[in-house]
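User: We ran a pulldown and think these components assemble together. Before we commit to crystallization trials, I'd like a predicted model of the whole complex to look at. Sequences follow.
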Amino acid sequence: MPKSVDRPEQRRRIGAALLRLAAERGLDQVSVRTVAVASGRSAGAVQKYFRTKEDMLVFAAELAGERVEERMALVDTGLPLRRALRELVLTTLPLDEERRAEAAAQLAFAAQAAHHPRLAAIRRQVDRDVRDALTQWLQAAGCPGPQATADAVIALSDGLALRMLYTPAEHPSLLQALDRALDALTPHEPPAA
Amino acid sequence: MPKSVDRPEQRRRIGAALLRLAAERGLDQVSVRTVAVASGRSAGAVQKYFRTKEDMLVFAAELAGERVEERMALVDTGLPLRRALRELVLTTLPLDEERRAEAAAQLAFAAQAAHHPRLAAIRRQVDRDVRDALTQWLQAAGCPGPQATADAVIALSDGLALRMLYTPAEHPSLLQALDRALDALTPHEPPAA
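Assistant: Here's a predicted model for the assembly, 386 residues in total across the polymer chains.
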């Protein structure tokens, strides 16, 4: 581990190793020891950056939340609404290795949040940020019930990602379900010229 | 533990204790030892019914799958489609203690299925059964794209339940999202007389 890398960057690297481990093996396999191995450090070196497993988990959940918002920022909001929503949901679905890792970590944290107040608070903040941004898109496009529609799209996206993680053979039919729901939820737009 | 209770019933009681534990504290807290305590047995007594933690988990996942199908059978399919779908989804949402426990266990298994082939196979079978039944309801009601709509309703239901588990304050607005999505996904029906 190069000494020249500063403390915030070291913490991010350890957090990223935790997210990889959660994605590959599940959150129940995460401990100071396993994260140390996954990040090429000793347990003692990890504990210089995170006092407890709990602190490390919370930091990784925040990192995962930032990634959601970064992905969201990549979607071109100049696209017609239906296409922009589809692009956004596709960034969250486990359709390749990178997105699979991302979705597995996100959903493991979401399921754990039911029993973990600090993780729940982070998830709630991320959900609110995504909902507010989506509500604005929907409102600008004249979609009825923009906030309820935003929450429906978030639920649809989480539910599809959850099922796709253990049902790779159904990816094509689950993408049809996404299209069916987006068709129903968005106002009809004239075909692109 | 009464000796008169037969082996299948003993297994069901242990499985039910595992589901309660998963709901209250998360799947990562499940072990032969903790399930033994939760079911008022010794670890040795639990191991007379399940050789390994893995066998016990798989049995509990099957039990959880049966409960989904039992709940589904309680919905009056003579109701208009929109109402029947709403009733069905409401049985899966954590809106009281009983459904909270049920949803927490179901979603913990779903998240774990991403890393666990035997749990994944059970979840896939339950999803297929629910989808097939829903597709029939939708088809009978003349809903366009019945299978894709069924998958969208399942995803919506899972996604809403996941978020409701860590966001109790948002239950009312998430129920609005459910209504918004069901309005969009179902053909318009004449108002009830």
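The two ends of chain B are 54 Å apart (CA to CA). That may be worth checking against your pulldown data before setting up trials.

User: Thanks, that helps.
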